[in-house]
Amino acid sequence: MKKTKINFIEAAMKYREVTIVFTLLLMAFGLYAVFTMPRSEDPEITVRKGLVVAAYPGADELQVEQQLTEKIEQYLFSFEEVKKDETISDTKAGQVVITVELNENVKDTDRFWATLQNGLNTTFRMNYTLPNGIVGPIVNSNFGDVVAQMITVSAPGRSYAE
What we know:
Elements lengths: L7 H7 L1 H21 L12 E7 L5 H16 L11 E5 L2 E7 L7 H19 L7 E6 L22
């Protein structure tokens, strides 16, 4: 029994009808995809990260960590929507910035961030003893807006190419 090697180019030349039908099908599927794909000038981007920022003026790093960061983290981790392993705290003298990432199952991220800010303003302040002079905590989750800027350099006597 002899094995024959199929040469696709020879087969395409021999059976032109199959090649033409296959090409027309590819073009039809391509046109269908172009006309049915969703389009948006400013696409909706779901960002699952947000910042919780608080300031404690005059406090050193250890004081901020003990009196502010640990309490905010404890409150944040009470929410099942928060990814605990992806949440990062950056404590410096006088301030704390906590990067919070949400789980994939959170559908309405704007609603969660609003709930979190409201909870930090009410429940958090009532249930946790905070030192005087703390500014915040404030939730910043507005990273989805896309901004483009075009910068050009020009000079008198120079062409655009130069």
